[in-house]
Each structure stands twice: as C-alpha cells, then as structure tokens.
C-alpha cells in the first residue's frame, strides 16, 4: 500500500469516528439546525480529515473545524473566513494553486503542504475538552507518520503549537520540555522536526490586525525555507 493509499484509508477511519459523544451530538445538531445563510446546503456533519500534498514538507496544524466551515463543507479551513485568510496567504507564497476555497470540490490543491486539525469535530464554543483532544491525537500522529517528507510543523495558534509538540513526541518519543514559548514567528527544534508558530487566522485576530496577510506570508515563507532540502 502506498502512503497515498494509507492516507485515504486513514481518512475513511477519521470520517467514521464517533468516539466523543459531546462532539458527535454538537456537530450533528449544527448540521441539522444550520444557520440562515446556509439553510439550503447539506452539511457534512462528521469528523473532518486532513488534506493536501502527500509529498508535503510542511504540516500545518490548526485547532478544529469551524461549525459552519469545515463541519459544513467537509474540508478543514474551507468555507469560512479563517480559511479565506489562510489560503490567500498560501497562494501568495506558492503553497496553494488558488487563493480561495469555498467547497471541498472547488479545485484547491496544496503544494508541498498538508493541513490538519488537532481535533477533527467542530467543538461547542470552539473549545474541545482535554479528553477529546486526546482521543483525536492518534489521528494526527498517524498522518505525520504517513507524510515522510515533512520537516516543519506550522502551528496556528497556541493550541496548534502544543499539539505540534505532542504529535512529535507521540511519533518520535522526543518530548520537548520545558515547552518552548508560543508566539507569532516562534521557532523550535524537536528531533528531526522544526516547529514554527503563527497567530491563528481567526477573525478575532485578523479583524484587529493582530495577524495581517504580510505577517502570515512571512511565517509561511520561513516554514518553506526551513523545510527546503539542503
């Protein structure tokens, strides 16, 4: 079985997961009740797998699917404002073939990058419980193991930063302690991986200009530079 086949098999396993009763109830209720602007759409309402280039050198780690973004479209960062901001920046630096993505079948391709969330179901108030994070953690570890060319984990937000070190520890046995401090542009080395931090492209950060397109592009450029073969 090729790595691509193994990723496809893992994707099917993720989509079928019902391990966390609170998250199952929430994601399915959101998909059933919808919001007015999407009332005519069929929601995904299931766990959201990672996606991207199987030969990626960069793994981008977010928090969880948005209730009316990934939980609606079935692809992480697709169909919401955070994804609009992220993919515009990725396209600008050559990591995506187009600057926008509204649906899972809209032709978006990631180039040398793979995107996944630490938690695969949309959580209430965007706050997963520690037990829910731990239930999902093996999925990210298995994805990383099936992406053998990854050299850099780009963490979106403090939650992504902690999850990046957790998945490295689960995959390699190297647990960076004390944990390097998160910050925008923060860098750390953990075994064979580098970890780079960015503020999350949530509207809370982009509307206040805590995170700008230039800032995100600079971090993506730095991740690409660190991931490049010697």
Structure description:
The protein is α/β, with parallel strands linked by helices and 230 residues long. The chain has a single domain (3-227), classed as Uracil-DNA glycosylase-like domain (Uracil-DNA Glycosylase, subunit E, 3-Layer(aba) Sandwich). 40% of the residues lie in helices and 12% in strands. It has helices at 3-15, 21-33, 70-73, 81-92, 130-145, 157-172, 203-206, 213-227; strands at residues 51-52, 58-62, 113-117, 152-156, 187-190, 193-198. A six-stranded mixed sheet has the order 1-3-2-4-6-5, sandwiched between helices. A hairpin with a 2-residue loop joins strand 5 (187-190) and strand 6. It is globular, with a radius of gyration of 16 Å. The mean pLDDT is 96.
What is the strand and helix layout of this fold?
Blueprint: H1 3-15, H2 21-33, E1 51-52, E2 58-62, H3 70-73, H4 81-92, E3 113-117, H5 130-145, E4 152-156, H6 157-172, E5 187-190, E6 193-198, H7 203-206, H8 213-227
Helix pairs in contact: 4-8, 5-6
Features:
230 residues; alpha/beta; Uracil-DNA Glycosylase, subunit E; six-stranded mixed β-sheet; 40% helix; 12% strand
Structural class: alpha/beta
The largest sheet, given as strand count, sense and whether it forms a barrel, is: 6 strands, mixed
| Portion in beta strands | 5-15%
Average pLDDT level: 96
pLDDT < 50 runs, ≥5 residues: none
Total domains: 1
> Order of strands across the biggest sheet?
1-3-2-4-6-5
Distance between the termini: 29 Å
Global morphology = globular
Mind telling me the C-alpha Rg? Answer: 16 Å
CATH architecture: 3-Layer(aba) Sandwich
CATH 4th-level superfamily: Uracil-DNA glycosylase-like domain
Which range best describes the helical content: under 10%, 10-25%, 25-40%, 40-55%, 55-70% or over 70%? 40-55%
Query: What is the ordering of alpha helices and beta strands?
Result: HHEEHHEHEHEEHH
Number of strands: 6
In the CATH hierarchy, the third-tier topology is known as: Uracil-DNA Glycosylase, subunit E
Discrete helix count: 8
């Amino acid at each position: 079985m090729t790595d691509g086949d193994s990723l496809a098999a893992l994707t099917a396993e993720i989509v079928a997961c019902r391990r966390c009763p609170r998250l199952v109830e929430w994601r399915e209720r959101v998909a059933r009740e919808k919001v007015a602007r999407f009332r005519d759409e069929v929601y995904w309402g299931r766990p959201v797998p990672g996606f991207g280039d199987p030969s990626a050198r960069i793994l981008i780690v977010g928090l969880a699917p948005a209730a009316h973004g990934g939980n609606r479209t079935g692809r992480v960062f697709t169909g919401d404002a955070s994804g609009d901001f992220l993919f515009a920046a990725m396209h600008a630096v050559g990591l995506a073939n187009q600057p926008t993505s509204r649906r899972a079948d809209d032709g978006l391709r990631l180039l040398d990058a793979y995107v996944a969330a630490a938690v695969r179901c949309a959580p209430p108030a965007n706050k997963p419980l520690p037990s829910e994070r731990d239930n999902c953690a093996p999925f990210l570890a298995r994805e990383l193991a099936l992406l053998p060319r990854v050299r850099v984990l780009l963490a979106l937000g403090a939650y992504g930063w902690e999850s990046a070190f957790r998945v490295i520890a689960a995959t390699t046995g190297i647990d960076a302690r004390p944990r390097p401090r998160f910050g925008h542009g923060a860098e750390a080395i953990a075994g064979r991986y580098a970890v780079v931090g960015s503020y999350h492209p949530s509207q809370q950060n982009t509307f206040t200009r805590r995170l700008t397109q230039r800032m995100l592009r600079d971090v993506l450029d730095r991740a690409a530079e660190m991931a490049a073969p010697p």
